[in-house]
Amino acid sequence: MNAATAAAPDDHRDRIAQLGDIAQRMLALARAGGASQAEVSCSEERGLNVGVRMGEVETVEATRDRGIGLTVYFGRRKGSASTADLREESLRATVEQACAIARFTEEDPAAGLADAALMATEIRDFDTWHPWPLDAERAAALALACESAGREHDARIGNSDGASVGSGESLGVYANTHGFSGASRDTRHSIGCGLIAGSGEAMQRDGWYSTALAEQDLESPAAIGRKAARRALARLDPRPIPTGEHPVLFSAEMARSLIGHLLGAVSGGALYRRASFLLDSAGERIFPSWFEIRERPLLPSGFRSSSFDDEGVVTRDSALVEDGVLQRYLLGSYSARKLGLQSTGNAGGVHNLDVAANAGGFEELLRTMGRGLVVTELMGQGVNTVTGDYSRGASGFWVERGEIVHAVDGITVAGNLRAMFHDIQAVGSDIDPRSHVRTGSILVGRMTVAGGD
What we know:
Blueprint (H helix, E strand, L loop, with lengths): L2 H4 L5 H21 L4 E17 L2 E19 L2 E7 L4 H16 L32 H16 L5 E20 L4 E17 L6 E9 L8 H14 L9 E7 L1 H14 L2 H5 L20 E3 L22 E5 L2 E2 L6 H7 L13 E3 L6 H8 L2 E8 L9 E12 L2 E14 H6 L1 E4 L9 E2 L3 E9 L3
Parallel strand pairs: 7-12, 11-16
Antiparallel strand pairs: 1-2, 1-4, 2-3, 4-5, 5-6, 7-17, 8-9, 8-11, 9-10, 12-13, 13-14, 14-17, 15-17
Helix pairs in contact: 4-5
């Protein structure tokens, strides 16, 4: 990709119109093929990613992908097919294939489009479209500047995992035979750097990255590089800690994973398969009484803002947890029918989440904890979603008298998610803005820490 290509006029409206036309043609073909219902998703993505390491450009990757996915229903029988070929004969073949599959599948009482009455009727713009006229040469220069700032920050930074700069655009159209048609568009840009401090067996790695919808909202390459260096240096000279029961403070970027376990446990698929430790928990207090999580799909400039979900169902600002009580599950139409409930507008996942803070910033949380463990990295997949049992490798910092005293690694933190949720002592105001799950650091009152002492 060259500068002229990157600076080409923004033609996304024409491309969305083309995808919309394709969607309507596919629906018409599905009806003509005998389908009682049909839905189609059309998407197109463009991107540029450049990686450098030790002052040299290592990778340049320009991507351009598109896909058409069709699902047809013959009563309660379902068939799906997809293609990336926009030629008329390919579209027709895709419809024929989906219809053929549906004719020979067994009926599923939960199959079908989402209820027509739930379709969104107003499609809003959320200021998520900010193309970056970035070419490979400029991206490489930014990545090199980021890595250089980190490597030059301190003589103890002896090696690098590299730096990268990426920019992407995504367009989508979803339409179905209820008459619904909705378009989406968003951009995402990022700069990141990973550095290695120390030497020999004493080496430690860490990094930092910034991601945003608009290029001007990214942290500067130099700031990212220097922060990556400081984080790597802070991990030098790790020491053992006592094995036992200790308070654990999950840094904001790690706290997101705790919320992620909640989302997995209250998602429709896990619930109707009875593979969740939070079965039949709607209306139950599972967090402290002050704890709150709100879903905000209509948030301006949100990473996951949308007027509709992946089935065209209208989205609404609503509580997921209020006064510590789980208010609802996360359901698409299929899982809702399996559970005898109604879609919550979460087909395709959750939208923007805000976890309410009840405390100050990170330093205040350290003082509140007094003595315990700060977790800044988690490893492994030791989480049982059926029982809620939690055991993961971790690294971070040991805290005494409200201050970090040294780094730790090679430890394990363990507990049970239900008990951990009940035992959350504080949520900080140090929100990590790099995700659609917006939370500060989370302090859990007590967990088992195996420190290797």
